[in-house]
Amino acid sequence: MEELSVVIPVYNENESLRELHEALQKALKTLNMPWEIVYVDDGSTDHSLQILEALAAEDEAHTRVIALRRNFGQTAAIAAGIDNTQGDMIVLMDADMQNDPADIPMMIEKMQEGYDVVSGWRVRRKDTFITRTLPSRIANWLISWVTGVKLRDYGCTLKAYRREVITGFRLYGEMHRFIPAYAGYVGARIVEVPVQHHPRRFGSTKYGMERIVKVILDLLTVKFLISYGHKPNYLFGGPGMAMMALGTLLLAFLVVRRLVTLVSVFESPFFPVSLMLMYMGFQSILMGLLAELQVRTYHEAQQKPTYTVRRVINGSPEE
Asked: So what's the architecture of 4-228 in CATH?
């Protein structure tokens, strides 16, 4: 029987934790499957860790607490939670009670229909429009356009995943919001479902406008890893060849002009430009080749395949 793990990063949420735990227990007890709750305390400075320890003592069969040494950020906390789960299905959600645990059974039903990722969509979002909702909509459009995985709400933490589509990569920076894009890269079946979103009643938001810059930088990283992670020379080599070709054509033009009009090649400002283009193109191709060597070393040293298997028919990997 499949097992469910719910991972919840916690940072200074002592006011909401008991209510959250009760709501989780109520929702998860309706499921016909084993389940666990994994709280990750991300270096809280209030009484969150003490409350989590008490909850774990009261519900030893279903509750686990991972206490990080300091505040590493939401992405690192999520990664720590995933690394310490046992479930075949993993649900991520926030601890501030804006996500509703009552939506989890509906998301698990969707997973059982054959989806690998069920992504929450906050249709009626209860956040400030200018500082939260509008930047989020712009980010959702940008991420969907760049990654090719079309979702209306990347920022909603409430998402359900099959373990095999989210354990083949490491999370850094603010990359937790890009997990669906990574899952889509390995061929996951993704569906987006409306979920409830409540106004914040406890504490204050941990995000500010400064995260926009972080998201853009992480998006560039994600695009590179998804599109060129296995073949980096396509990124470096293509522009490199184009620059070398342009530089060669420009130099050829200068030589032909010298033969026809007797204008000196070396006195033209286009001469150093052509040499620079050829040099930069050669350097770009060399960078691509070095990146190819690094990628091959990475895969071969860790014996990582360059493919993912959904299932084996007439046999199984365990046989």
From this structure: Alpha-Beta Complex (3.90)
